[in-house]
Amino acid sequence: MPRPLSLRSPRTSPFAPTTLLALATVLAAVAGLVGLTAARAEAASLQRISSFGANPGALDMYAYVPESAQPGAPLVVLLHGCTQDAAAYHDHSGWDGVADERGAVLVYAQQRSANNTNSCFNWFRPGDTARGSGETASIRRMAAYASEEFGATGAAYVSGLSAGGAMASETLSAYPDAFAGGSVVAGLPTGCADSLLEATTCMNSGKQQSAQQWGDEVRAKNPGYGGPWPRVEIWHGSADYTVRPVNGEASREQWVDVHGAPTEPDRTEQRPSGTVAEIHDAAGQPAVALNTVSGMGHGTPVDPSAGCGGAGAYFLDTLCSTEYTADFLGIGSGGAEPGPTPGPDPTPTPSPDPTDPPDEGACVTDDNYGHVAAGRAEHRLGRAYTVGAGDDLGLWSVGVTTSVRETGPGHWERTADC
Questions:
Q1: Phi then psi for 122, rounded to 5 degrees?
Q2: pTM score, two decimals?
């Protein structure tokens, strides 16, 4: 078992959480009950999974399998915020208590500093958010691994904070057939940015689009897919000056449009700490909820006095958002209906799906940062080299764009153009 990781203090660099998204920029059946029992005994605390299969996004995987988990357990994938890690999120977010209480398996995707200087998920990079590509593909594979190895074959969900919240939305959009629902905490809507500059604009002032345009951002990831769509809960502080509250409202508009739900909430609920929950139903079931926490800044709402998480940097003592989220999503109560399950296939494919991993012979043009993030190249001493052939692509940077061609499985060579 790895040495526990600790919560790091906020940095004062331009990549610190106060601008955490601006410049830099969380699993199909096991052999039987005996195997699952052994897995639980070994994974009573947070465990690092050294290998889980294809990992084009070069992420790390951690898992928490509580003793209460049984075959068919629900699964929650969790995505931390910038400067955080899996252990910090596990220790502070309150999801460990939800897992213990409801028998859910938790998987934490952890970003590597080699992918992002401030350990943010790259929610604004198309190569990391498309179906079958980069970080979302790695997250999807983690879910499949947990389903296979831990018997977490119930409904799967994904949730995240800030950059992780934005990536949770992107993951739900890329794999609506694999995740029954999720939550976006202090995050942004799918498709808000395709670059660092756009990310800054989205964070600071949002992006002006109609509800249908927001919905189209989700639908465009899986052309031809007609549902079911994941249930989504959104959390945002009214005093969040890092990711402005307008982003929470845009996320609500986006998923309401995707579900075809009424634009006006079906009901409004008052929750602790001045929180107002606006809930939209679709087909007679809760589909989208926006929770606005009055006076809260940037972070995950937790309630240590109720045994829900721990207060700290970007874990704010207000109310237990994880418990409300688990209730809304139906975690531990049969799941959202209808709800897809992760299954053994890491990349289920609706038809058509132009964003699946390229076939042998495919040619891809991207910046060198994107090639490395997608596993087509590797980073060594500030430069990017193709995986397989080892061709020098130049500086490892978003400012250098090159073309590469897959001449064999996992073997990439530099080419003049695509």
A1: -85, 65
A2: 0.74
Write out the two tokens for 18. 């106060």
Q: With a cut of 70, which residues of the chain have pLDDT below it?
A: 1-44, 334-361, 373, 380-382, 396-399
Same domain, 129 and 67: yes
Full residue range of the structural domain in which residue 136 is found: 17-329
Residues in the chain: 418
Same domain, yes or no, for 306 and 400? no
Region of 10 on the Ramachandran plot (φ > 0 left; ψ -120 to 50 alpha; else beta)? beta
Per-residue pLDDT of 248-290, as tens digits, reads 999 999 999 999 999 999 999 999 999 999 999 999 999 999 9
Looking at this protein, which amino acid is placed at residue 247? N
Q: Is 195 a catalytic residue?
A: no
Domain membership of residue 268 (yes or no) is yes
Q: What is the CA radius of gyration of the chain?
A: 20
How far is it, in rounded angstroms, from Cα 145 to Cα 55?
A: 12
pLDDT in tens, 345-368: 444 333 333 333 444 468 888 877
The one-character DSSP state at 130 is S
Q: How far apart are CA 338 and CA 236, in angstroms?
A: 27
Which of 119, 133, 138, 162 is catalytic? The answer is 162
